[in-house]
Amino acid sequence: MEKAMSQAAPEYQPTDRTVPTRSRHRASYDRELVHAILDEAYVCHLGFVRDGTPVVLPTLYGRVGDRLYVHGSTGSRPLRMAGQADPGLAVCLTVTHVDGLVLARSAFHHSINYRSVVVHGIAHQVTDPEEKRTALDALVDHVVPGRSADSRPANAKELAATAVLRLDLAEVSAKLRTGGPNDEPEDLTLPHWTGVVPVSTAYGTPVPAAGLAPSVPVPDYVTAL
Q1: Paired residues of 55 in beta bridges
Q2: Is the CB of residue 163 less than 8 Å from the CB of residue 76?
Q3: Would you give the distance in Å from CA 164 to the centre of its chain?
Q4: pTM of the model
Q5: How far apart are CA 214 and CA 163, in angstroms?
Q6: Nearest Cα to 209, choosing from 222, 197, 225, 196?
Q7: How many domains does the chain have?
Q8: Among 13, 26, 182, 187, who pairs with 105 as Cys (CB 3.0-4.6 Å)?
């Protein structure tokens, strides 16, 4: 699948839904950039319509090539709906990183530096057992790379209780803001501090679970975080 991905076009094709109405210069359809933003985050927000009302749920996800996988209980709303709907469930999935707080001289020009991805498409419930196992491994490895090979795989009962949605990366775009404040020329002499406060994710020291044998070391892939 990764080999096929490398032969794909370097950019996603813009559509009416992926071209922003404001700040179009911040939009990007670069495939590598989209994948990098997705791979660095942990949580996505999955939006869909249920009984005429919009619903947005935070959830974990994993990427395999040009596909995203989202998992949940077989009783969860979107997974039930994707299984019932024909040809699937229309969704909008988003991922966002906040990289900095942008403090301008004027309240109007305060902003944040960010990287985001928006995906539109039809989600389908995964029914093939092999694809389902691949998807679940990808979900585990997305959070901590290498973890799926160092944990017990799901058994038949757990697989039966878990549903997985597949969403192809086809109608997708990234949007970014970088740099400092964009103050008005007449505000440049105002005596207010202005600049960017960087925001980053930090990992703490791993805390072993209760009952873990002292002889079990922290895995290299955990300390590598």
Answers
A1: 48
A2: yes
A3: 16
A4: 0.87
A5: 35
A6: 222
A7: 1
A8: 187
Q: What is the 3-state secondary structure (H, E, C) of 71-101?
A: EEECCCHHHHHHHHCCCCEEEEEEEEEEEEE
Chain-centroid distance, C-alpha 67:
12
8 Å CB contact between 55 and 144: no
- The answer to whether position 121 is within a domain reads yes
Three-state SS at 163: strand
We report the CATH number of the domain holding residue 76 as: 2.30.110.10
Residue 37 belongs to some domain of the structure = yes
Q: Which position has the token pair 């419930």? A: 125
Residue 115 lies in a domain: yes
For the chain (225 residues), the mean pLDDT of every run of 10, in chain order, is 57 88 84 96 93 92 95 66 70 97 96 97 91 93 94 89 92 95 94 96 92 91 88
Residue with tokens 């077989």: 74
Residue 161, pLDDT score: 85
Inter-residue long-range contacts of 107-116, CB under 8 Å, 24+ positions, other chains counted: 109/181, 109/182, 109/183, 109/184, 110/181, 111/177, 111/181, 111/182, 112/177, 113/177, 113/178, 113/179, 113/196, 114/175, 114/176, 114/177, 115/37, 115/174, 115/175, 115/176, 116/37, 116/174, 116/175, 116/176
Radius of gyration for the chain, computed over Cα atoms and rounded to the nearest angstrom: 21
Give the domain range for residue 15: 2-180+216-223
Whether 126 and 164 have beta carbons less than 8 Å apart is answered as yes
